[in-house]
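Dear support,

We are seeing what looks like truncated structure output for some complexes. This example has two components. We would appreciate it if you could run it in full and send us the complete token output so we can diff it against ours.
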Amino acid sequence: MAKLTRRDFIKISGGALLGVAGSGFLLGTRGLRANSITDPRNAADRVVPSFCGLCFWNCGILVHVKDEKIIKITGNPDHPLSNGKLCPRGAGGSGLVYDPDRLKKPMIRKEERSRQVFREVGWEEALDYTAKKMLAIKSTYGPEALALLTHGPGGEWFRQLATAFGTANIGVPSYALCRGPVETGFYLTYGASPAEVENTDMSNSRCITLIGTHLGENMHNTQVQEFSKGLENGARLIVVDPRFSVAASKAHYWLPIKPGTDIALLLAWMNVIVEEKLYDADYVAKYTTGFEELKKHVSDKTPEWAYASTGIKPSLIRETGRVIGAFRPSSLIHCGRRVTWYGDDTQRLRAAAMLNALLGAWGRKGGYYVPAEMELPPYPYKKLDYKPKAPVDQPKSGGYPFADSILATGLRDASIPGNAAYDLHAWMIYGTNPLNSFPQPKKTIEAIQHLDFIVTVDNLPMEIAGWSDVILPECTYLERYDDLKGAPFKIPFTALRQKTIEPMYDSKPPWWIAKELAARLGLEDCFPWKDVEEYLKVRVKAASLDWEVLRKKGAVTGKAQPIYVEDGAPLAFDTPSHKIELFSDRLKSAGFDPMPQFRPPEEPPEGMFRLLSGRAPVHSFGRTVNNRLLSDCYPENEVWLNDKICVERGIRDKQKVVLVNNDGVRSNPVKVKKTRRIRPDCVYLVHGFGRKQAKMEFAFNKGANDTDLMTKDKTDPLIGSKALNITFVKVEQEV
Amino acid sequence: MAVDTKKCVGCNACVIACKSENQVPLHHFRDWVEEELAGEFPNLSMEIRSLRCNQCSNPACVSVCPTGASWVSDGGIVLVDKRKCIGCKACMAACPYNARYVHPKGYVDKCTFCAHRLKESLLPACVGICPTSSLVFGDLSDPASDISKALRSRKHKVIRPETGCKPNLYFLA
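Here is the complete output from our reference environment:
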């Protein structure tokens, strides 16, 4: 007898498409123009400033609305992060609003004739049911048995709700899967992390070193603006990447490093800079501790030593080390984003932080500036009197002592009985898709099968929706207000996200969903305001800002303040020694290397390649692959394979192959990009493709899914982040 | 217009902005991005170009058009009068740059340098959005314009000069 799994993945297939809403890009096909000068007649009725939601940079946008349709999105010149410019994703936001596959109505999983299906319901029923299930979890297991996995500004309403509900198990997946090693590696060194909008002063740099960071394909708007200004101003560019990225094509030096050996290179650069006295001696003397230990530590880490593991010639290591040192302090090693690669990543980012310190770059012009933040008083909520149980994102057997944030992957593991101090029994998901982002997807499904309840709030039917009990359709970022958002930057600022058109279908803003749930959970005090506009007006008034100005301009800046130490910006280090810690006593006491050590990575078995992944400029990983406007430029990913390997094996460009990993897991057939732009020992895929959700009709089955191939588990012992570059694959040609 | 190939990262912001501004249908493009790779691993170099109609001074598309739908307007911008276009595609065969596409409505379409925006003293959509400020635009006959200055101060080239079309899309080296 077939074993029925508790939960079937409902593909939400079928159901007639509602009449296609007038997509911005189809408006022009209605009729020929009368004038001989092509005029798309797209002068807007109104232009509404807001901030973008297609990634987490949150750039200021101007949304042009005509006949209640969004016809185009341009950059807001008043928003410091966009300066009137946008990356392709921001410009393509209408493709999300008018995505015919959007979630339209709340849905509840029901069992009918021993099949599990989703039934569309009204909001009352969906919210009542969700609250009922949440209260049942609370009374049976305690409120801490509910975990919230969230990503994006809209999730902050749910964080507040979950906290009031009584759980501390709130995880933003990007710590364990993206930024954790940067935040903690730098924090252990400087007592501060790079800002959310990385505080790299590239436009003033005289030397920029990128380790794996592929700006240009990674389209974080402001970063790319700064990057190109820096290059225009004559900055030297050094790119370390197994792949000849777009950034590498702009570089004066491209170091096609063997994957997994970056720590060796960083140590060798430190060797050159220390030995040849190319460090900022005054800065090091004044601000750092542990220099003598560092000097001793790197004394044998010569370029010759590093050559053996990195494959980079000693003369090139020496020359680039000299260039990096020569341009101090306006010489920076970019900290990067999505740095969760090999399982030793926090130590690698420690090395990057230490090297930046030797250069005197932290706090300096052309290095890392001291960010300015607009201080906004929070809403005067009543203080919560309930102290929740400690979170269970770390395993019972022993944890990750330096994790600065909750590990979302750990929350997943805690949903499998017995792993953690207590078990999780329910998930609330906001704007994140664990099935496409967490390595070891089978484990994620195993966790899901143990849960009593899952509620997902999203605007698209991502894979996690297919496993949920309740799906609550959120309206897009263009159809709602969210909380004020500014990021620490060169100038203090804050921005408003405001509604540009009414929510489509039966979708609702996240603040409303959270508030409605709060009311049903007996948590009315959680959101004591009538609606989000009332909330925002209170905050704006408390900050002595003008609501009407904010609505009109979309962003307001504060008083400029010094951002460089040279100009008087304050430099303080929240470390035990109150100095920059080149040698970390904290790490030593915890049994870890106080200074990074290089350990050779595992080698791919004969005939296999290491799988690397990264970004395409028109996509935000898996969030945008169903966006038809953006996907018109890049509808599916391809596997980059070195051209000599292709020739040896008779593989043609654009031929379809299947990637098979070390556990026999097979990818979708995927086109090959036969290219000279990658080392022969690795292959590369843009992350976010190969989707399994049939209701995302455009993205379904296009390209290959790198996450599905990530069956190996490797965790950074310092912080618990995962390693995403440890998969080995064979390339099989389709017969 | 000039494209600064040193700065262009091929992000496609220009493509998406153009598609929105000009309601270019899916699967068709008025502008697009090309990458040209040279050398052998690991000594590689790559030029990235944002491309569109070259708005030639001696446009082959205009000379072959049987109906006069393709014409040169003020400022040298080559336009297509949709009312006159019969969709014969002679212009597409003549164009050395693959700049044109057949609109689903039956006429041939291409980049117009956002002539409708130039009328209002606004920059073309692609120029306005470019996050690396790689697109330089202006009046070639005005020596003080940004484009004239760029062409005087930077090494530049055009594509396929041998066709004699006298293209006006420059690539700054």
